[in-house]
Structure formats: C-alpha cells, structure tokens
Write a structure and sequence with these properties.
The chain is an alpha+beta fold. It contains 2 helices and 5 strands; from the N terminus they run ββββαβα.
Length: 106
C-alpha cells in the first residue's frame, strides 16, 4: 500500500507521522461493443453507493463525463430484482459509441 514506518533516535524527542493509506477509486477495465465503460473498484466500496453516481473519467485527451448504471429493471429476472446490484455488474454510460469511446480512452 505504500506505507512507510521510520524511527530516528534523537534523545528524548519523539515524533510520529501517521497517514491513512486506504484510497478508494475506480479503474476502467474495458469498453464493450455498445460503448459502455466497465470498471473495477479499488479500496473498500459499498457497491450500492455507486449506482447513479456522476463520474469523470480522467484521460490524456481530457475529461469524459458519464453516469454509473446497470441493467434496467424491465430486463431483469424477478430473482435479480430482489438482490443488490454488484459493482461488477455496473457500467459507466458516457453516451458514446464503442469506437469513439476507445479512441478517447487511448
């Protein structure tokens, strides 16, 4: 995680520097044929907090704006509707076609 622990003997003076290293974030995995951006999580996310969140994808070509979505209720089976949606079943909709999106993410 990049933690650093160090000591220095300096007589009676003691100093402690502490920092929280658990960063949370999302990383793009791939763009599907419809242009939806699939991602993986890093850190400790509660998946349900992700749905319907506005997102900014930071790329070398500038920011790309989108919103996190999932399969719509009318396309779900009854059993699926009773369970929380997992992050692995979510995607970022940026309103673009796959070919255009892949080029922007390069």
């Amino acid at each position: 995680m990049g933690n650093l622990i160090a000591t220095k003997n300096s007589g009676s003076l003691r100093l402690m520097l502490a920092a929280h290293m658990d960063e949370i974030g999302l990383m793009v995995k791939y763009v599907d044929d419809k242009g939806f951006v699939y991602f993986t999580t890093t850190g400790g996310w509660f998946d349900q907090t992700l749905l319907n969140q506005r997102m900014i994808l930071h790329t070398t070509n500038g920011p790309i704006y989108g919103v996190i979505g999932s399969k719509p209720p009318h396309a779900m089976k009854e059993e699926e509707m009773k369970k929380p949606v997992k992050a692995e079943d979510m995607f970022i909709d940026v309103g673009a076609k796959a070919k255009k999106m892949r080029k922007k993410l390069e």
